[in-house]
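Practice problem: predict the structure.
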Amino acid sequence: MTNKYKNRVEQAKVYDVAVKTPLENVIGLSQRLKNEVWLKREDLQPVYSFKLRGAYNKIAQLSAEEKDKGVITASAGNHAQGVALAAKQMGLDALIIMPKTTPAIKVSSVVRLGAKIELVGNTYDDAYAHAKNITLTSGMTYVHPYDDPDVIAGQGTIAKEILEQLQHNPDVIFVPVGGGGLIAGISVYMKAVNPKIKVIGVEPDDAPCMTEALKKGERVVLEQVGIFADGVAVRQVGEEPFRIAQSCVDEMILVSTDEICAAIKDIFDDTRSITEPAGALAVAGMKKYVEDKQITEQRLVAIDSGANINFDRLRHVAERSDIGEHREALFAVTIAEEIGSFKKFCELIGMRGMTEFNYRYADAKNAHIFVGIQLQNGLAEKNELLALLRDKNYPVEDMTDNEMAKLHVRYMVGGRGNGVANERLFRFEFPERPGALLRFLNYMGERWNISLFHYRNHGAAYGRVLVGIQVPAEDEQRLQEFLQDLGYSWWEETSNPAYNMFLS
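Answer:
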């Protein structure tokens, strides 16, 4: 298998549109991680992503008759741009089906390349089903984003370039994983050339489709996936990528949203470029691997796979990068409601900088504060500080990994609802598109009294809402039916300690 794909990669037709991207030695990360770190800059492709390699190679293999009928694909953005550019280069008709949640920057880029677009559904799977139906009736050729040998071979040209650009072979290569086309192409080529080179895949911890498939020995369909890293928000890996990964991928690593945000900042600090969340996965995974394995003086390559990010999403990235880098801790601390107690608490914290300090009077006995603290020595310092506070008899909750606290409660301290009966708290996600919030409000307002409501636009594909609803006990069945019929992802947060301390 490896030699067959090696030949495919070496014969792939990609350079009519793709460029041989730089392989940069990034000094800052190299020094911090005590390893030789290289960044493969696929964000510098003409469509700011590696995807045009596989798309062009696939379309270049079509017969004249197939080209005459045009091409079609479904994509959340980067593959769409690759197909659109390839079709434009060859003078072919192209129809792109994209989810309605696709970032606007990716939609506008496809329009500029001259392809026709249809926005269908809220997920890649919705768009894919629609595109396949059109394929059956139109005679157009479907260009799969990842589950196609020609697409995989096109992506594999990245591996060939890396080996040509490095004087010595790398020890480990880190690759972002969505549907699996990129890691399939890179790993199968690397193993054909030198089986000792480790190839490690990196996925978001809320979209682990390859990780779960390799663990179970068969492809799985995830019930839902997170969409922060929209470029890899795939519920099931491709059949051919999975087959290749079983024999060619050495390991999988999962990273959190905060760790991805920290990696975006790392790349910016070293290159002054801004990558998209999926593009930063490899760096996030590399950092985690180095920390876990305690390796030094190895040659590490991370694939920076793309830079198609909406500018307004940078608010969320900046907000969470310090937490992902373990440079900030968020605590909820209870202190005595008496003169001098704030001063006493601050003296205990010492010379550490505070990034946040939120409080509102609750009662005559206790004060609950929400505090952000700068860390110099990461998790070890955070754990030392927690131990110190508890040793001094301060009740403290670590909110650093509490999603509701980071998204909402930090901005709502003081929103306590005294005397609110039968309150239940829910967190919702809904597609961020015109009319979605209004629909949500109208649907909610027809049933029970809303006692708390918090919404903040993070520039992401999904809006996030925190809602308090007064629901009598006898309405429990109606409530459950309502939540299911609403059609949005939801979590009940009534028992969340952040709610109990600051809002209830």
